[in-house]
Amino acid sequence: MRPGLGLPALLVVMSMATVVPAHAETFQVTVDKLDFLPADIKAKVGDTIEWVNKDVFAHTATVRGDWDVMIPPKKTGSFVLKTPGDVEYYCRFHPNMKGRISVAPK
Ligand SMILES: [Cu+2]
After folding, report:
1. Which residues 6+ apart lie within 8 Å of 50 measured at CB?
2. How many structural domains are present in the chain?
3. Could you say which residues form the signal peptide (predicted)?
């Protein structure tokens, strides 16, 4: 008996992998003990920032007058960068937590 499903299943897996756009990156920022690490990131439009919260309380990544990402305790929050420029973000619950993203055009 020949196993009939092996090759088609492999092709499906390979075509799924090619759907991911090669040029967009994901940057991880660890949130630990009231700190964004790294606090300074260089990215470009279309990239994703993913915050990984190691603390047992919630944080946010908030840009005044613009976007706001909730980062629940022991979970992640993410945001896709849409506009170029330098952004400074902070946590609404702990305003002395600060980070910076320098967003280059695509
Ligand atoms: Cu916070």
Report:
1. 26, 27, 28, 29, 76, 77, 78
2. 1
3. 1-24
